[in-house]
Amino acid sequence: MDEIGEFFRIQLTCVSAGSGFHQKLPEKLTDFQKKIVRRMLENPNITYMMLTDDTGKSKEAVRKNIQKLKSMGLVSRIGPDKGGYWQVKLPKENENF
């Protein structure tokens, strides 16, 4: 829940990160990119700095890989840098990435 001026924004997210979760991600992704996507699914409000701390990679490496994920259409940023969130679009089983 976020307070924006006189308004509140409530975001509900339901993600099943069970044992078959990794199978939904395209095989063409690197392990690092899969980790980024998983973190975004777990916490849509995650920041570049949080991803940097979590993965041990540089901010530039995180940025470049997020750009690749965006160009593939897997992730997009909704809203501003501050107060926005990440939207992950997992492909359907028959889609090729």
Which keywords apply here?
single chain, alpha+beta, two-stranded antiparallel sheet, two-stranded antiparallel ribbon, 14% strand, globular
Account of the protein in words:
With 97 residues, this protein is of the alpha+beta class. It has a single domain (2-88), classed as Winged helix-like DNA-binding domain superfamily/Winged helix DNA-binding domain (Arc Repressor Mutant, subunit A). The protein is built from 3 helices and 4 strands, in the order E-E-H-H-H-E-E. The chain has helices at residues 31-42, 48-55, 59-71; strands at 2-4, 7-9, 75-78, 85-88. The strands form 2 sheets. It has a two-stranded antiparallel sheet. It has a two-stranded antiparallel ribbon with strand order 3-4. A hairpin with a 2-residue loop joins strand 1 (2-4) and strand 2 (7-9). Helix 1 crosses helix 3 (59-71). The longest helix has 13 residues, at 59-71. It is globular.
User: Which class best fits the helix and strand makeup?
Assistant: alpha+beta
CATH homology-level superfamily: Winged helix-like DNA-binding domain superfamily/Winged helix DNA-binding domain
Strand order of the largest sheet: 1-2
CATH class: Mainly Alpha
CATH topology: Arc Repressor Mutant, subunit A
**How would you describe the shape?**
globular
Order of helices and strands: EEHHHEE
Quaternary structure classification: single chain
Number of helices: 3
